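Hello Y.,

Per our agreement to keep a running log of every chain we model this quarter, I'm adding this entry. I've kept the format consistent with earlier entries: sequence first, then predicted structure.
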Amino acid sequence: MAHKQERVTFESAGLKLAGIVHLPPDYQPGERRPCFLVLHGFGGNKDTNNAQVPAEMLAEWGYVTLRWDMRGCGESEGEHGRVICLEQVEDTQNALSYMASRPEVDPERIAAVGSSFGGAVAVYTAGIDQRVAAVISSGGWGDGARKFRGQHSTPEAWERFMKILEEAPRYRARTGKSLMVSRWDIVPIPEHLRHNLNSQSIQEFPAETAQSMYDFRADDVVGNIAPRPLLLLHAARDSVTPTEQSIELFKRAGQPTELHLIADVDHFMWGEQNARVMHIVRDWLERYFPVRAGLRAAAAS
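Predicted structure for the entry above:
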């Protein structure tokens, strides 16, 4: 049985954000189901593999899900390509408020799942907002400066990247405009993985985007998530985000937190639809964030 989809818009900081709500195939009117907010990756959108696949999978498993375009991305309003970490945190909080207002959703059981950039934003949001009931991060990161050092690993590459950050304020002072930078100069992605970005993915960003990522530290707030459950997934040899990023998040997190390093996947593991990843996620959900508990709570209320 196919699940139902609804195109929606909601407001964040005066901007209209575009999203798609998925209802489980067995949803019955009057139920209040647990919900997942599905966050896309860096400069992506709601239709990339790392957003669409988990949104549809979780809906099939019984959760209401929302995948949406962050401001400046996809079909949402906002300056195109202006991707700022703390603004995406704000968008996620407003997505949560929107879903909490919907009659199909149990407002006490709204979780977040994100991949890469979206994983970092999901963890940070839960670290500052107690309304996030659970978190799944796939290939996420906790320290932007350290992450970039791993992604630009040679002295020459690191020098080139730091020159972008140093030149950006001078360029703005001189021209009144942002210095624009290729996505590959911010986050290098091997050629063989680039097909995971669809044609709507942003290819050029203002240098302020790179600076906001450099300054962003989910490491500092991940400890606030406990006792809410956290699942950290990472490719054991990630070609994009250094694997140590999730290891450090795990070290700083409280319990219950699980970390799984998976050998036979790479950075875009949702798009690979790896059976072991799906099994790990489903088992974790059964233990820490089951659909049944949400239905019982709704029936009792």
